[in-house]
Design goal:
The chain is α/β, with parallel strands linked by helices and 212 residues long. Helix content is 40%, strand content 19%. The protein has helices at 73-82, 84-98, 104-129, 165-177, 186-195, 199-209; strands at residues 15-17, 29-35, 38-47, 54-57, 63-68, 136-139, 146-148, 154-157.
Amino acid sequence: MNPLISNPQSGNGGLQIALPLGRPASAGASQTLKVGARILVVHLVRDARARRYVLRVNRDGTLRLTLPRWGSLEAARRFARAERRWIERERARLLRRMAPSISPAERAMLTRRARVELTARLRTLAAQHGFEAGRVTIRDQRSRWGSCSPRGDISLNWRLVTMPDTVRDYVLLHELAHLREPNHSRRFWRLMSQICPDWRDARQWLREHGSS
């Protein structure tokens, strides 16, 4: 729970209300929120005793947004938009606490799945954007999500198969872009903006949640 969040006037376009908050909030009322690549359910509750908007991430991944008696639904929407990054951080924290350690068998299963899914997705993206990648390998990399060799061979971290689709695609497109621009020059990032317009959001997700 985050009782200190109380500024309903701030805004952030990165989180959008997928359904209009146009009805009175009451116990059990719910809407959906788009947070990054995920659609989350938010339960709206009006509490006459509340003095501020209060947002909480439930253990099942849904959200609970409490409105004070005087609060408006439009202000609640602005408030939720402003807390996109807090929602992502809190969900990641809860997942770290709840997720069991991965067994060797589970890791092997995910690696096999990554070989099929990541390779196929990279080939699809390469065809869409006119890239010609060499050999694709899946590795247990500790400090990289992917790499591109001077010969055009691409290595990918098997953990990408567990990530949101938009984040996975960002990494794949990042390595494909290195086929044309082997460094991180301005030309490289201009290319990334063309083939992956939301690359900044995906990179920020990796910075905040990649370690988990």
